[in-house]
Amino acid sequence: MAVSIDAELLGDVNEPNIKAINYALQELQSRKDRLDKLSDYYNGKQAIGNHCFENTQVKPANVMVNHAKYITDMNVGFMTGNPVKYTADKGKNIDDVLEALKKIDIHKHDIELEKDLSVFGYTYELLYLKATSPIVSVDSKGNEKQTPNTELRVEVVDPRAAIVVTDDTVEHEPLFAVFVQSKEDLEGKADGYSVTVYMPKKIVEYRTKSSMRLSDNDKPIKETENIFSAVPLIEYRNNEERQGDFEQLISLIDAYNLLQTDRISDKEAFVDALLVTFGFGLGEDNDDMKALKNGVLEAPSRDDGADVSWLTKSFDETQVNLLSQSIENDIHKVSYVPNMNDEKFMGNVSGEAMKFKLFGLENLISIKKRYFFDGIRRRLNLIQTIVNIKGGNSDVSGCDISLAPNIPVNLSDVVNSIKSADGVIPRKITYSWLPQVENPQDVIDEMNKQDVERLKEQQKALQEQDPDRLEVEDGQDDSSPDNEREEQDDNYGKRTRGL
């Protein structure tokens, strides 16, 4: 999560300010506990694992149903199952930018980005240039020349390892960013930290030997030019509050796991019930003890009320099951993620019924998309800078960004709607309703091509059935009705002129 400060406190924004860097590092460390907890819940390290009974003789089952992972994985699939689409503004070209996005496999990157957004509520993306094999060329004199070459790369950065510092204006423009990596020696022991500071014009790296904090005497061990001319560490937000998708559900998740754990523990206690005898006892050498070991024991036939029974704790399984379902329903209701295993969530419902079932999820995704696109626009501007430096001519201003959620749709209803709207709404709009269609114009071209081929096939079939008829249609002879009409017109003209 970005932290805001007064830009005037930095002086020159392109010169490292140790005091400001340490302030950012302190803010980064203060958020670690919260982020660690969210990461643990996604990975299955939840509070139920530490649950225990007061009676140390009873070992809890500690059942963990990972609703946190289910919510995140489903949201990631819904949100980024389909790739983001980019459409250049009218009269502008973004082909070089799209080619750069293709080379770095941006769809896979967006999936990883959305996963961190769903878990932590915010995350970071780092763009950088990696040196590759130089470009070899030969000049007019036959001399070989090597030109340095770089490739654009992008990586998701764990929010526990990075922070962006912005100004305190309403626009919150990035001033600098800090990326921290813990270092270890060859024996696996902690060996300080690497602290990299990204400024608009330069990138500097520090190295500490103990704590993460820098001292006034620390000098950069490496300094390079920032060719992006802007902070290349981009913050993405999941929502305005920067909360994870399951963060507000942790208490419900804990309650569900505790209830399931108690149910299993009660079952185990029922199996390990105590045997109680009334009016008689059992000895080690008694025949009754032998019968007990064989699984058969009967109370003596006496008139003093002798009896034998199991001492068990009774509970209403129906009420427990209702409580379990109630908690699970609350989890899905608050998270807006439907329970795909619910019997009511059938696969044969109509398209309209499906829309109502997924209405909350679609609203959630629409909010997530708005904040996701804010980071993407900053990404496009940074990539544009690089591709244009390398000779490109891209302009991403006004670029349209769209994302079709990967949500089940009733395709037959969509097709029927397109048919009904034909002639009323332009096909370029109606064809965009089809899922998995990136460019409606491509569909229009394919349909026109299909119509031409169908017409050719019809003409070919007619020719095979009646060749003479097609001959007459191709070249009209003198006996055709049109020629007769022309002769009649000529005769009429002669008669009128005679008059």
Describe the structure.
- This protein is 43% helix and 18% strand.
- It has 499 residues and is α+β, with helices and mostly antiparallel strands.
- It folds into 3 domains: 1-273 and 314-408, no CATH class; 274-311, no CATH class; 466-498.
- The strands form 4 sheets. It has a 6-stranded mixed sheet with strand order 1-5-6-7-8-9, with helices on one face. It has a 3-stranded antiparallel sheet with strand order 4-3-10, covered by helices on one side.
- Helix 13 crosses helix 14.
Provide a concise account of the structure shown:
43% of the residues lie in helices and 18% in strands. With 499 residues, the protein is of the alpha+beta class.
Chart the SSEs and their pairings:
Layout (H helix, E strand, L loop, with lengths): L2 E3 L12 H13 L1 H11 L24 H14 L4 E3 L7 H9 L2 H15 L1 E17 L5 E14 L4 E6 L6 E11 L5 E9 L3 E7 L13 E4 L7 E5 L12 H22 L2 E5 L8 H7 L13 E5 L5 H19 L15 H7 L1 H31 L10 E3 L8 H11 L5 H4 L9 H26 L1 H8 L6 H18 L1
Parallel strand pairs: 1-5
Antiparallel strand pairs: 2-13, 3-4, 3-10, 5-6, 6-7, 7-8, 8-9, 11-12
Helix pairs in contact: 3-5, 6-8, 13-14
